[in-house]
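During the second half of the funding period, the structural biology subgroup turned its attention to how the target accommodates small molecules. The most pressing case was zinc ion, which had performed well in the primary screen but for which no bound structure existed. We therefore specified the complex as follows and requested a full 3D prediction, including the ligand pose.
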Amino acid sequence: MLQPAAMRFNDSNSVVIVTERDVMVVDAQADSSTVESLYEKILELTDLPISWLINTHWHADHSQSNATWKRLVGDQLRIVGHESLRTDIPTRTQALLDEQIERLSGVLPRAEANLAEGKGLAGQDLDASQRETQKLAIEQGKAQLEELRRVELLVPDVTYRSVLRLERDSGDVVLLHMPGHTAGDTVVWLPEQRVLITGDLLDEVPFGGHGTPSAIQRSLDHLSGYFPAIVVPGHGPIQRDRERLDLVRELWSKLLRHCRDQQQLGRSLDQTRDALDLGDLRARMTGGEPVAERNFDGFLPDNLERACADMADTLE
Ligand SMILES: [Zn+2]
């Protein structure tokens, strides 16, 4: 029996697929402590061996803890991802990791020195409770820095180019290369159960990531033809209908069309941004929820810029 279960930890979703003979995990998480707690939960769920870890793409929250999984599960664990991960993890994931270490290494001593004088990072005076909060934040930052310094990135043992089918009696698990959020996105499709695990190609709040909006739209258009019963996005709650998938497709196609129209009129990016009218799409996507609205508004300028760069490329 296949029991897909999605759990939201930290930031990204990990999905546990239990087949008749083994367990597969989709997405590795960034922190080893999160991996350890997920691993404990899998042990409570089943005695079957964990044989596959699928990386949907190279971003840290989906691939950074590959080595932790290997350490916990052992060498029988095979890590699988799109072939581009062989180069993207050692270069792009590593670069982001190095950047994070450098940033924390710089900011923590400054924050500590300031705190010793009762001040915050920007030199502002702190009251007693703010000092307590700052002390805690510094301790957490130090623990995170220690953890990041210990990270050893691992590339997948097994890679594929366009499709990889893991055959199981309980229902096949199909890995599909569906680029968009990055160049090497993997989407996991369980045809028997009609469960679609999208990685960040579909996010609670659309974010272009390191990808190309026209590719996101192509991939989402393709996937909508699968008529999934359950969609597990890279972040956020499980979807039991197509509404979110369709809304996200609508957003990207509106942004791309708007960019194309404005470029044909010779408008600049600033003018294009000013002329953008999404109608009620923002309200339909966020449901008026303040955090969702803030995220939507935060990502929109970058999303529009990516869409316009993408359309400019196709015009040339
Ligand atoms: Zn991502």
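Two results from this model are relevant to the next phase. The first helix runs from residue 32 to 45. Residues 104 and 144 are 9 Å apart (CA to CA).
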